[in-house]
Amino acid sequence: MSDERPRVATAAIVVIGDEILSGKFADENAVHLIGELRALGVALRRVEVIPDDVEEIAATVRAASARVDHVFTSGGVGPTHDDLTMAGIARAFGVPVVRHAELERLLCGFYGAALEPRNLRMAEVPEGATLHVGSASVWPVPQVANVYILPGVPVIFRRQFEVIRERFRAAPFHLRRVFCRAEEGTIAADLDAVVAGHASVTIGSYPRFGEGAPSVLVTLEAKDERAVEEACRALVARLPVAAVVRVE
Amino acid sequence: MSDERPRVATAAIVVIGDEILSGKFADENAVHLIGELRALGVALRRVEVIPDDVEEIAATVRAASARVDHVFTSGGVGPTHDDLTMAGIARAFGVPVVRHAELERLLCGFYGAALEPRNLRMAEVPEGATLHVGSASVWPVPQVANVYILPGVPVIFRRQFEVIRERFRAAPFHLRRVFCRAEEGTIAADLDAVVAGHASVTIGSYPRFGEGAPSVLVTLEAKDERAVEEACRALVARLPVAAVVRVE
Asked: Which superfamily does CATH assign the domain made up of A10-168 to?
């Protein structure tokens, strides 16, 4: 009973792209993956948006790879000078970038006579990468250690994530939401008591403004559905009756 | 002439919140600040979304503070158990959390007789924090070293950032956008040549899909407007005439 929480798979997202940091494009891929990972029952621990820089990519991916179970990168995998993800991930693991025969074959098939020498950069991966192959219309997803390398263009990102998604499916999270009519300060002590008595449940408190009376959304979440229900009942029992607007 | 680029102020954003990582709320604050910083002429180097965890906050803020000129945190500053930003930033700089007399006075004035003891947690800041005070209707922004501490609720985040915004205004970035009808692979060598000849300009290449013919948006950006114009002219001169759809 020293650690009640069952082992939950963890993940990190690394978005690689000057274009996000400079506001030229809004990130869509981390937003999409946050929803996918939650639905899969995977606990996302960190999202990082970093520049197109080999050293930054290497250091960030190496650190994330050591800390979580699954790392997903987005962006930087095309044929131009600013596509540095393969070089960065290779450096993260101390391996060279090599041309992958299967990817080269796919590129030759796709472009035919129109193949530019430069397109072959898209056949380059860190040495030792494995490929996850979906249908013929979807580019394979390279994996190096626990890092899955996905592209930056959102429609292609989503399509490629589909290829690997079911690998990560785990027990779902259970969530209860308690909508309160109260200031956070007035329910903080009640929340403390419930937090202390239900260590396996993650409890969040989110004030909401601009809707008339002050209100707070309390969320209770865990993989263990019964633990969530017990914590939710304990919270509702502690709060003043008038403070609980509804429970979902 | 060994370093042509003038010194550009840099920034990082640290979004603190389980609710973003678990998909309960979409981030709005980093998105907002990306646009603000760009308009101010500040170069954003990194965005990190991290959990409500004192050690994670401390390590992330300490690292960001050492790497960039300005760090902005979002979230975790209310009165409940999951509001750990002040403790995390205090630990980042090896100082205790203390009650700030001016913030206590503001809380007492705001709540009057309805003040809950727990609300006074919102008067706590890392020791040595300075306050940026705007109008009476806006909560002051605490600063510790080069870290500005902002709240998670988007409407309040934006209002508080207004208080400090003009501190960061610098020379603007100049941007040119060249819309090309081409595959990235066919223009990659031309891009390389322009990149090599215009080291002070940041050049990005972004393929666009699903609009009929393959197309690429090339962006050229720097603080030096003349350098951007020269790089843009050099690129257009290199590309096949039919490949350039328009320049903005």
From this structure: MoaB/Mog-like domain (3.40.980.10)
